[in-house]
Amino acid sequence: MADVQLISERDKSVYWIVVGDGDWLISNVYNNAYNDTPTRSYYSCLYRRARERGEINWPHDTFRPNGEHWTINKVGKPAKVGTWKAKDLQKASLFHQGLAALNRGDYSTAALKLRPLAEQGHAKAQYNLGSMYRTGQGMPQDYAQAATWYRKAAEQGHAKAQHSLGVMYARGEGVPQDDAAAMKWYRKAAEQDVTLAQYNLGQMYRTGQGMPQDYAQAATWYRKAAEQGHAKAQYNLGVMYQNGLGVPKDYAKAATWFKKAADQGVVVAQNRLGLQYRTGQGVPQNNVEAIKWWHKAAKQGDTTAMSNLGGLHRWGGKGVPQNYVLAYKWLSVAANWGHTTAKYDREEITDKMTAAQIFEAQKMAREWSRKHKKVK
């Protein structure tokens, strides 16, 4: 949003307007100012200085709202000509001040600035005030008030407010729990490309929460979120392809989406991708790649990945020689961290190991566990 900043106390007609996608240089020059040589010279100097810094790259545009003469320059792009009113600039400045206060943790000032705007119908102020009530920032947490302000903003088309209101209906926070209402608001936000809303809508279709289960619709909305980089949507879309749910079964596409999610640290995606490399499902069989992805998952505490590592080292395979010490190590860690069958697998290889090998494997398991935090 805009922040109206006076450039100079000398000439109160020249302002910078800082907006989300760049700066505007605005000069409010009354007609008689054209005959005022000092004012005109000062503005010309200011404009020239900005041009020299490369901050203004286009000729100025002018228009006359309310009988005043305004000169507007957009940094880096041609100016957009529109009708500006003083009260609009004041609202923009007030909102920016409120948002800045919110971002620096000055919640009382934020509420002081945002509430009057919200009461006047300012959608972004309504959304931010709702978020303050929801989280209890600067005021007692009040889900009902949060829902009230989210609704006001949502009804004006504010996409994030629509999603937040959907979440509150899904959870029954401040409003009666209502899956149909949650879906309604998720859909409105999703159609405005709110990634989380697209993912949540996909979840509702996949699970049949509040509606008939529809895997095709789930895959559609997961894809929209996945293409915007949502990691869990990428993983879930991979699962849909792997199992042929709502889309034709395609192991290669499953691996593609698992890889995207795995690269973002989704542990179940890392484990599944490792398994695909181990079996050659949708990707060339590659035990080294399997170990790579299982290691990543194991570091995040995934006991299935630990057990898989133990199994691969136990039996060996192309590029990975059989190694009972490493197998025992990983099966021990998996068992100690709660994997239900790892201890039985470990017992099966104990008779094939020397006492020295067992001692070494136990030591390696302890050292690995000390270096990595157990995920509860």
Describe the model.
By secondary structure, the chain is of the alpha+beta class. Among the domains are: 3-84, no CATH class; 87-192, Alpha Horseshoe (Serine Threonine Protein Phosphatase 5, Tetratricopeptide repeat), CATH 1.25.40. It has 17 helices and 5 strands. It has helices at residues 37-52, 86-103, 107-119, 123-135, 143-154, 159-171, 179-190, 195-207, 215-227, 231-243, 251-263, 267-279, 287-299, 303-315, 324-336, 342-350, 355-371; strands spanning 3-6, 14-19, 22-29, 61-63, 69-74. It has a 5-stranded antiparallel beta sheet with strand order 1-2-3-5-4. The chain is elongated, with a radius of gyration of 30 Å.
List strands and helices in order, with pairings:
Elements: E1 3-6, E2 14-19, E3 22-29, H1 37-52, E4 61-63, E5 69-74, H2 86-103, H3 107-119, H4 123-135, H5 143-154, H6 159-171, H7 179-190, H8 195-207, H9 215-227, H10 231-243, H11 251-263, H12 267-279, H13 287-299, H14 303-315, H15 324-336, H16 342-350, H17 355-371
Strand content: 5-15%
Radius of gyration: 30 Å
Secondary structural class: alpha+beta
Question: What sequence of helices (H) and strands (E) makes up the elements?
Answer: EEEHEEHHHHHHHHHHHHHHHH
Span of the ends, CA to CA? 43 Å
Strand order of the largest sheet: 1-2-3-5-4
State the CATH class of the domain at 87-192.
Mainly Alpha
Q: Which key features would you list for this structure?
A:
376 residues; alpha+beta; Serine Threonine Protein Phosphatase 5, Tetratricopeptide repeat; five-stranded antiparallel sheet; 17 helices; 60% helix; elongated; disordered N terminus
